């Protein structure tokens, strides 16, 4: 992985606002030297990589809530996955620097974060009042313009984002096994060779697969498309997850499958390009079996 200074000119689009867990994941990966461009929606992040951002960071899956549908919906037509980040979601209690636990009278945060930290609040702050905010980041920002007897539940990155705030307690959520995986996306496959993007040796790939539409011969004999099981078998590569979304053609029950592949750990290769060559051959085998296949991720 390159040093953080290598990312000084890197523009990273994120699902905003600044201070969210997507921002924290991006900061964890790219560091303080990158420029973070916030977008209001996941679709907005995908649009940003087509209009100037070098890379984008979007949530892909959470261990509690499952797959992020909007991310997969956008991958049906645009974007290329060039990396991933896994972040343990840890809610922190932030205060104005110097404030101690007995001084806190009110706790601010998003409604979900307040609920996810109810055990800590009831045990350590049983008499405080709770105040809902539009986001966890907004709660942290609100501390700066209010009396010092208030605290915010938010991500750790907010302490670096807003001067004058400190982390008083970390990991105060009820559920400790809460992880979110994020995709790093770029405009196309060629972008992945940009030296500013930190990465480890690549061993995973994402392929978009759709069965061909039914067709008919001159004698009106209907030719059914191959089954998805036949197309998946044609890959002949280790499959670690499959996500299904409706296709964009408007045809009822005609689906697009986003299939994540992983190189077998026991396979030794001389170069990274040999793994890429195997994935490309797998895509060709799917096409020869009657499917429509595109490589939309390699990391």
From TrEMBL:
<comment type="pathway">
    <text>Amino-acid biosynthesis; L-phenylalanine biosynthesis; phenylpyruvate from prephenate: step 1/1.</text>
</comment>
<dbReference type="InterPro" id="IPR001086">
    <property type="entry name" value="Preph_deHydtase"/>
</dbReference>
<protein>
    <recommendedName>
        <fullName>prephenate dehydratase</fullName>
        <ecNumber>4.2.1.51</ecNumber>
    </recommendedName>
</protein>
<feature type="domain" description="Prephenate dehydratase">
    <location>
        <begin position="11"/>
        <end position="187"/>
    </location>
</feature>
<keyword id="KW-0028">Amino-acid biosynthesis</keyword>
<keyword id="KW-0456">Lyase</keyword>
<keyword id="KW-0057">Aromatic amino acid biosynthesis</keyword>
<dbReference type="Pfam" id="PF00800">
    <property type="entry name" value="PDT"/>
</dbReference>
<dbReference type="GO" id="GO:0009094">
    <property type="term" value="P:L-phenylalanine biosynthetic process"/>
</dbReference>
<dbReference type="InterPro" id="IPR008242">
    <property type="entry name" value="Chor_mutase/pphenate_deHydtase"/>
</dbReference>
<dbReference type="GO" id="GO:0004664">
    <property type="term" value="F:prephenate dehydratase activity"/>
</dbReference>
<dbReference type="GO" id="GO:0005737">
    <property type="term" value="C:cytoplasm"/>
</dbReference>
<keyword id="KW-0584">Phenylalanine biosynthesis</keyword>
């Amino acid at each position: 992985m390159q040093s953080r200074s290598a990312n000084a000119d890197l523009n990273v689009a994120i699902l905003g606002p600044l201070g969210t867990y997507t921002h924290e994941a991006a900061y964890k990966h790219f560091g303080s030297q990158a420029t973070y461009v916030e977008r209001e929606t996941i679709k907005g992040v995908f649009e940003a990589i087509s209009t100037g951002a070098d890379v984008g960071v979007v949530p892909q899956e959470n261990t509690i809530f499952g797959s992020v549908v909007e991310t997969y919906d956008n991958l049906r037509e645009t974007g290329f996955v060039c990396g991933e980040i896994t972040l343990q979601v840890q809610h922190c209690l932030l205060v104005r620097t110097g404030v101690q636990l007995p001084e806190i009278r009110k706790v601010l945060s998003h409604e979900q974060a307040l609920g996810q930290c109810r055990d800590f609040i009831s045990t350590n702050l049983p008499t405080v009042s709770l105040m809902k905010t539009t986001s966890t980041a907004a709660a942290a920002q609100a501390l700066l313009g209010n009396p010092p007897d208030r605290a915010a539940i938010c991500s750790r990155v907010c302490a670096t984002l807003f001067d004058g705030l400190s982390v008083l307690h970390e990991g105060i959520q009820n559920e400790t096994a809460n992880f979110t995986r994020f995709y790093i996306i770029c405009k196309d496959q060629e972008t992945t060779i940009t030296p500013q993007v930190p990465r480890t040796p690549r061993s995973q790939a994402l392929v978009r697969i759709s069965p061909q539409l039914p067709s008919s011969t001159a004698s009106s004999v209907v030719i059914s498309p191959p089954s998805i099981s036949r197309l998946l078998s044609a890959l002949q590569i280790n499959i670690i997850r499959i996500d299904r979304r409706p296709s964009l053609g408007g045809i009822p029950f005609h689906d697009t499958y986003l299939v994540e592949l992983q190189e077998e750990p026991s396979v030794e290769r001389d170069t990274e390009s040999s793994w890429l060559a195997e994935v490309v051959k797998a895509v060709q085998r799917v096409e020869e079996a009657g499917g429509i296949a595109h490589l939309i991720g390699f990391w």
